[in-house]
Automatic annotation (TrEMBL):
Alphabetical list of InterPro entries matching this protein: NTF2-like_dom_sf, SnoaL-like
Pfam family, one: SnoaL_2
Lineage, broadest ranks: Bacteria, Bacillati, Actinomycetota, Actinomycetes, Streptosporangiales
Protein name: Nuclear transport factor 2 family protein
Domain SnoaL-like, residue spans: 10-111
Length: 158
């Protein structure tokens, strides 16, 4: 079981690195939930994959590297790095992310990513917005609201 779950994580990130959203989707349980500092709580494979498809479509130079995969019977962790150009500012972002997984029926049923939103905002937005305001609740709320609105628009137009 542990080897299979480790392979599932490798398959997911390998597909992500190749920009193969269909293979990524096959790694997820139909009832998957996803959360991170921006997309705090997405439910269902369609919505979670909508987020990944939107992000893949926006980043022509996305690089994904995974390491430190560790699994137990029903849980797993990994560390991954996303590097890309943030479209709104043209600034380079290298985001270090810790992922937690829960497995059910041989698939990922819970995926939670954690990263430093303040650090991300500094890279993505630069001075002064990201550095001065990157830690404020107001900017965090704006980032989250903008992301969720973009996802809604993406989901209705595809």
């Amino acid at each position: 079981m542990n080897d299979r779950n480790a392979e599932l994580i490798k398959t997911f990130y390998g597909a992500f690195a190749r920009r193969d959203a269909d293979e990524m989707e096959r790694c997820y349980h139909p009832d998957v939930t996803f959360g991170d500092p921006v997309f705090q709580d997405l439910e269902g494979r369609d919505r979670v994959m909508g987020m990944w498809r939107m992000l893949l479509g926006r980043s022509a130079d996305l690089g994904v590297k995974v390491r430190d995969i560790a699994v137990r019977r029903h849980e797993g962790t990994a560390h991954w790095t996303a590097s890309y150009t943030f479209g709104k500012t043209g600034r380079r972002v290298v985001n270090e992310i810790d992922a937690l997984f829960r497995f059910e029926d041989g698939l990922i049923v819970r995926h939670h990513d954690d990263f430093d939103l303040r650090r991300w905002s500094k890279m993505a937005m630069g001075m002064p917005t990201g550095i001065i305001l990157g830690w404020t609740p107001m900017l965090r709320a704006k980032i989250r609201n903008t992301a969720m609105q973009s996802l809604q628009e993406f989901m209705t137009t595809r």
